[in-house]
Amino acid sequence: MISKAGSGHTGGSMSVMDILVALYYGEHVNSAARGAFGEGKEEDKDYIVLSKGHAVPAQYAILADLGYFDRSELDHLRQVNSMLQGHPCSKTPGITLATGSLGQGISAAHGLAMSLKLDKKPNKVFVALGDGELQEGIVWEAVMSAAHHMTDNLIAFVDNNGLQIDGPCKKVMSVKPIQEKFESFGWYVIKVTDGHDYEQLMSAIGKARRETRRPTCIWCETVKGKGVPFAEGKVEYHGVALSDEELKVAEEELGKV
Fold first, then answer.
1. pTM to 2 decimals?
2. What is the spatial distance between Cα 253 and Cα 195, in angstroms, rounded to a whole number?
3. What is the pLDDT of residues 79-118, one digit of tens each?
4. Phi and psi for 94 in degrees, rounded to 5?
5. Residue 93, preceding peptide bond in cis (omega within 30° of 0)
6. Domain spanning 2-255 has what CATH number?
7. Is the CB of residue 89 less than 8 Å from the CB of residue 77?
8. Residue closest to 216 by CA, chosen among 245, 235, 189, 193
């Protein structure tokens, strides 16, 4: 999708892919969130927000697979008048909130979670952030507010791949210690040592759903460009589309998994 468009964010889309698969297809998320064919009423579904909006190609691939729109739409990423823009748009079927300006997604997700609690609804709101995104002050305003209001239906994932557009997070501006920061604000934190291991991800989601009176952060160690050896852990593939030659190698490598 990204390669055909000649534009997009390959590395971060691949690092968050397994987290999104666990959410959309996992047993611990309300089945109505899984797509147009999901069981249950629309109003009963859990919500999934991609705060690191530049990684939306990963979400588009899943939404197409689940039947929100025809797979042919994937051929038109980032084109004028396409329903699949470079960042999530609420006009796109299956997208909960428009995001893109980093840090704002968790604030909007917290607002949604609060409204659900005020309406006494059981829905959960899952939001995925990048680790570089934690450098934004607006993130910590939302984190503080969620703890204060005991928004226990808010579950945040941190896609901790250690890289951002300008280089390693630790060199640009360290966001560590992640766990201690969230805990100091009053959050329950679950560490996932391999954010590409579905057993660990599903176990963490199950624990988070059972937590009461405080929001949960699921901190996942991930690999940028996961699944393609020449791109793994390389900041150079943050916002670069693969060439035709690279794409051929990438597809071969992914086909082996």
1. 0.94
2. 19
3. 999 999 999 998 999 999 999 899 999 999 999 999 999 9
4. 95, -10
5. no
6. 3.40.50.970
7. no
8. 189
